[in-house]
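Structure tokens please, single chain.
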Amino acid sequence: MVKATVIIDCGRRSGLGRVRRTLTLLDAFRKCGVAVRVFLSDEDGASFVRDQGYDYQVGIPEDVSDDILIIDTCSLSASEINDLCAGARISCVIDDLGDRPVACDYIINPNLYATGVDYSAYSVRKVFNGPNHSLLAADFFENSIGDDDRRGIVVSFGGTDDGALAAAVAGFLSNITNEPIFVPVPAYLEPSKTLMALAARTPSVKPLRNPGMPALLGGARMYVGAAGATVMEAMASGCAVCVAATQKDQQQNADYLPTIGIPTLGFYHADAMAVMAKKTMFAKKPKMAFNVHAPMDIAATAIEAYHQPV
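Here you go.
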């Protein structure tokens, strides 16, 4: 039987966007009858992996010699990734920035800006890049409802934020809109006291512990938050989007998003984001063609290569 092993960064440093996209790819392998193993960098975020029906281990696998290896990490060096890929039968590296040249079979960059990233220094068979190769679960498309029925603003700065960053934006928004404001907080973080105090005195602000993001974004009017993986999830869900870069690895996205009409700040500024969000909420939303079949296409390519004579 074909085997796939995935290594994922998760938790307080990396958030959950990386986990959601990689498990979406792994779901495609599993649908093709591939046996799968999951290795995580941290216990934080592991409950999400379990909820998706996967067992996991924390650490690095010892033997991937007969596996399709999938790596989605910012904590491993190029040298460490090269060693892992060299030991695998087929290797796939999800690489957002193009700044860590490696030798592998396939590079995957699902970001909107990805077609502009230079991978000429990498040694690869093929690069899957851009929205046509987005790693978006079908649930984000399927839960999207019509604009007339949408209600609420999702304010989230990802799985690294306990709600403190979101609370500042939510507080400003609550003063300038009547929309309910939903603030998701991952299960492994205790909601910040600032957020809970705001919610106690402001009925429109609603903290949510570990909600299902496809359903939440699918019914919301707008996403306001970090310029990370959730941007594409929100767009696929039909939300208006207004974001800011809160981490260094989001800067390429923050530079690109204004070119397709998405209001974006290159830095976090709570009141500026709230004002920008109010102006954007009912504006025309940019259209982006995502390929919902991309995970299956990538999986099929890797499986075909696996079966080729060594």
